[in-house]
Amino acid sequence: MRIDLHCHSTASDGTDTPAELVRNAAAAGLDVVALTDHDTTRGHAEALAALPAGLTLVTGAELSCRIDGISMHLLAYLFDPEEPALLAERELVRDDRVPRARGMVAKLREMGVPVTWEQVARIAGDGSVGRPHIATALVELGVVPTVNDAFTPDWLADGGRVYVPKHETDPFEAIRLVKGAGGVTVLAHPAAAKRGRTVPESAIAEMAAAGLDGIEVDHMDHDPDTRARLWALAGDLGLLTTGSSDYHGSRKTVSLGEYTTDPEVYGEITRRATGAFPVPGTGGA
Length: 285
Prior knowledge:
Blueprint: E1 3-7, H1 18-27, E2 32-35, H2 44-49, E3 56-67, E4 70-77, H3 84-95, H4 97-110, H5 117-124, H6 131-140, H7 171-180, E5 184-187, H8 201-209, E6 214-218, H9 224-237, E7 240-243, H10 263-272, E8 279-280
Parallel strand pairs: 1-2, 2-3, 5-6, 6-7
Antiparallel strand pairs: 3-4, 3-8, 4-5
Helix pairs in contact: 5-6
């Protein structure tokens, strides 16, 4: 089995629609794919309607969190999307995205960069607007060569010249909320240092004690030494280890299924979940 548990669509900051994502996942030879858009489950219905035969969809979301001033992301799988407490928290985070993005556009314009809110809104479309959409605008304007080049201290990185904070959930509260909605939690790309400050191992240990289920180890932003360290940490803490592409379509160079999760780990995730269940495709539209 080939299992990719971290992918994005146009419902947040990917470039594939949810329907295109599942079709592309099947074409890439995946058996299981997770749709984990940022702070939203809006793409799930379209993905399910288009789910090809032979491909199983894991529903989820990537939750924006912050601990001790450090931004981090928590992958939440197979939770009940209508559970009121978790739904209310996701809406708080999502509703803060527009004023935050407008603030970054204003900072860019003060620096002489001719980006406009209309340009960013066009790029975001119906998705939850975020920094990757602003980064894409900078690429369109020729300010930076790639989206990744926009995530530096000169531009959009945490604490960078253009950075504007948004509402982010305390990770211990996020773990509690996801558990309350029957879901499973995995810390996304915990050692992706090029994105900014990373969560210390002591905090990961505290999250494990609070019910964190796993950490994402095999990821494009982790070099071999980092992966070895994370494997050892997971073993010490009794955490599951996943591998995922963090696919964003053409917005990143990584391909669907470039990093995958062990089938036994996937099986344990599904066994722990009670809020929702993986959906096997029978041939979508």
